[in-house]
Every structure is written in structure tokens, then in C-alpha cells.
Amino acid sequence: MKYRPFLTLCAMAALLLIASCGEKEKEFDATGTFESTETTVYAEQSGKLINFGVKEGDEISAGQEIGLIDTTQIWLKIKQQKAARDVFSTQKPDLEKQIAATRQQLDKARREQKRYSELVRDGAVPSKMLDDATSQVKVLQKQLEAQVSSLSTQTKSLDKQMAATDAQTDLLYDQLRKCHILSPANGIVLEKYAEQGEFATMSKPLLKIADTKKMFIRAYVTSTQLKSIKVGQQVKVFADYGDKQKKEYKGKVTWIANNSEFTPKTILTDDERADLVYAIKVAVDNDGYIKIGMYGEVKF
Q1: How high does pLDDT run on average in the chain?
Q2: Is the model more confident about 99 or about 40?
Q3: Which of 92, 57, 111 is nearest to 292 (CA)?
């Protein structure tokens, strides 16, 4: 009987220990996998890849030239268009020179008309001579107007042909620009689908890059958890390396799904019995240790 108080104290301590273990806060609120923004680079022109030495794993920058498609045919077409433009330019008439003779004849006819007008007024010559001079002025005026109209029409036609060749040349220069394969974003080359020397066709995928410096973890939460989550919220993110080895990062909630979905089989949530969950994205600055597809945890 003297041992009963001691046993009672031991039992109470055990119950307290069990209770404290049961109330221990979970280390995470959601789990998911790390992803990155992936971009596929396509060929914008057809031709032989005369330069495409980038390799998988290479780090490239936005705007960096990573390949070149043969530009020979495009350059030849540009020279052809420029030559055609020069031909049209030399065919343009010099309006003033071509109407100069007619204008001189008209000026002379007007002077004669004025002289005969004065002579008829003084009664020195018959009025028929004035009528003939007036008629000559009208003929030369119409002739001059016809010449100006014809030459203007010819000039406008040649101007339009020159504009068409200029537009075609601009189009060729755009095609020439697209022969230079540029990286659309910063990232690492994940996959390469073509090799130097191959023939690339328009819209053919050439490589895939991923921004591994700005990564995010896609996790799933229950509707109950939504009340404590909002876009822009700062959270803790843990990269799980296995064998209980984890590394903590600062994260920021950047997206919350508007629609629920059925729980993915590979995802654990705070309530594993939940049938419907909401996807979220948490952005993380990668220090080089986080890899695509690695499991992670989120603590709100």
C-alpha cells in the first residue's frame, strides 16, 4: 500500500506526456513538389542549323543568341528586291524636264495671244488672227495638263511598286532576324531536341529551358485552411532531401485556385480524408539546391 502514491504519480506523468505528444504542432500544413517556369523554344524559320552548340545544363540569359539558321537564301532575295527597287527608281520621270518644252510653247502662245489682242483692238489685224492665237493657247494648255497627268500617274505607279519592294524587303529582314535563335528568358537548358547541322522547319521545337532561380512549390490545401491563406502571404517552405534532411526557405503565396479539385493521389494534405482541395503556388528564390520535382513542405 505504501507504493500506491508513487504509482499514481507515474500514471499521471505518463498521461501528461501522451497528451503533450498528441497536441504537438505539425511541422507542415501542406506538401507538394517544386516546379519551375518552363519555356519551349521553336524554330521561326526553315533551314539548316549552321550554329547550335548549346548543351543540356547550360545556363543562358534572356536575349542571348543560342543558334543560327542558314540565311543565304534570304540575303539573296534581299539583294534581288533592292535591285528591283533601283530599276523602278530610275524609271521615275523628271516631271519638270519632260514638260519644259510644252510649257515654253505655251508661254510663247500666250505672248502671241496678248500681242494679237492689242493689234485687234487697234484695228491693225483681223480678229481671226486673235481667235487662232487663243485656240493655240487652249490646245497647248490641254496638252500640258495631259502630260502632267500622265507623268504623275506613271510616278505614282512606280512609287507604289517601290513601296511594295520596300515592304517585301522589310519582310525578308524580319525573316532574317528570326534566323537568329534567341533565348526568350533566363534559365537552364533542360532538353535539346535538335543538333547542329540538322534541317530545322518552322515551328519545330529546338530546346526547353527552365528558370531554376525563381521556382515555386505547388501544394494543395483544404477548404478549412483557405481562411488563413491569401495571395501575397509570407510562408515557410522546406525542401525535403529525404532521411529527415530539410532546408528552410522564405516563400510567398502567388496564386490560389478558384476551383476545387479531387485530391491528387500523390499529395498529402492536412486532412487526408478531404475529397476536394485547392491548389496553391508558393514562390521561392532558389539558392541552387532545390531541384525540379523535389518534394517540399509549406508552413503557413
Answers
A1: 86
A2: 40
A3: 57
Tell whether the model's pLDDT for residue 5 goes beyond 60: no
Residues 116, 130: contact at Cβ < 8 Å? yes
Cα–Cα dist 295/293, whole Å: 6
For residues 50-73, average pLDDT: 95
State how beta strands 59-60 and 295-299 pair: unpaired
For the four alpha carbons of 237, 241, 242 and 246, in that order, the dihedral sign comes to negative
**Cα–Cα dist 65/181, whole Å:** 6
Note the pLDDT of residue 79: 96
Please check whether residue 212 is in contact with residue 188, taking contact to mean a CB–CB distance below 8 angstroms. yes
Cα–Cα distances in angstroms (integers) from residue 299 to residues 100, 217, 260, 287, in the given order? 90, 12, 20, 19
H-helix or E-strand containing 99? helix 95-122
Per residue in 146-180, pLDDT tens? 988 888 899 999 999 999 999 999 999 999 999 99
The distance in angstroms from the start CA to the end CA of the chain is: 52
Q: Give the ranges where 123-201 is alpha helix by DSSP (H).
A: 127-179
Residue 25: its H or E element: none
pLDDT tens by residue, 72-115:
999 999 999 999 999 999 988 888 888 888 889 989 989 988 88
CA 211 to chain centre: 17
Q: Dig out the grid coordinates for 48 from the structure.
A: 539548316
Among residues 292, 294, 282, the alpha carbon closest in space to that of 212 is found at: 292
